[in-house]
Description:
Blueprint: H1 2-20, E1 32-37, E2 47-56, E3 59-63, E4 68-73, E5 80-81, E6 86-90, H2 93-128, H3 134-165, E7 169-171, E8 176-181, E9 188-189, E10 194-199, E11 204-210, E12 223-228, E13 233-242, E14 253-259, E15 271-279, E16 290-293, E17 298-300, E18 303-310, E19 314-326, E20 329-334, E21 342-346, E22 356-358
Parallel strand pairs: 1-22
Antiparallel strand pairs: 1-21, 2-11, 2-15, 3-10, 4-6, 4-9, 5-8, 6-7, 8-10, 11-14, 12-13, 12-15, 13-14, 16-20, 17-18, 18-19, 19-20
Helix pairs in contact: 2-3
Amino acid sequence: MKKITTLIIATTLTLISCGSDKKETVDNTPAIVVKISGKSTNDTSPYVSASGKIESENSANLSTRMMGYVTKVNVKVGQNVKAGQQLVSINNTDLLAKKAQVDASITQATAAFNNAKKDYERFTNLFAQQSASQKELDDITSRYEMAKAGLEAAKQMRNEVLAQFSYSNITAPFSGTVTNTFIKEGDMANPGMPLVSIEGTGKMQVVAMVSESDIAAIKNGMPVTINVKSLNKEVTGKVIEVSLSAKNTGGQYLVKINLDKMNKSILSGMFVNVQFPIEKTKTTTNTTTVLVPESALVKEGQLTGVYTIGNGNIAILRWLRIGKTYGNQVEVLSGLAIGEPYIISADGKLFNGAKISVQ
């Protein structure tokens, strides 16, 4: 009996000592430093405004009408070019051979024409002296006209070949800057395939998209204020074109605006906000539009969301229903309230439930 009691006590002590070795798991993962914004802004301006983009007044994607290997690309992206400057050369050996054939045809047609012309003049004089018949004169006249037409046809063939050379030597249609090159030496150029993109460095214009509720009040010549977002600068301009159809623009109307003064710091592709001097009506004022920067959005497949801050400083991924895009901002239709904070950037990879530290 004494041995059994001792065994039970030893077993109990062993179990107690094993239980005391268990410790609570502590999450020592460092918090991810994030920046937040509570500026899910709404459009409270009393005037009609629209987002747009700066574009060059002159821009072109240059292509060719012939097929051949690219022998030389004479320009680089960012290079300034002048009108008529050669940009791309395409192999034109076949055109050179065809030109030589046409030149030989012209020589042959010229000789035949000169011979026929002399015969025509000779028989005309003989017919005037009644030394040649009308039938002989008609035959010589016919041969002369055929030789003349043959020479003209050979010359037009030469013009056709020379026109083809313009498609093997791509030149700049206007002075500007090369914005992109789509090919390199040795590539095969195909008809209609873009080779080089060029934009004029002169006048800049704004292309803005206006909603159907506001387009009726916008007229040509209307002065506007343009806010260049990346430069935090305001410039002025005038409306020069107003589209009356939204068929190919997603339900919005295209408006073009010329800048009053050029500024070297304003570059093509910059996003702007255009303010038209038209007071909003009750039907056009939308005080619940939430706009968030596109860089803050998280996309997984067809879902779009944003990280918000949960209790205990953790990141919570919230899915949103988004609407139109205004420059670098996106309209949030549901899922985020005005003024509600959300994460705009992080020093590490965020995930749902991650510990965060607000900077």
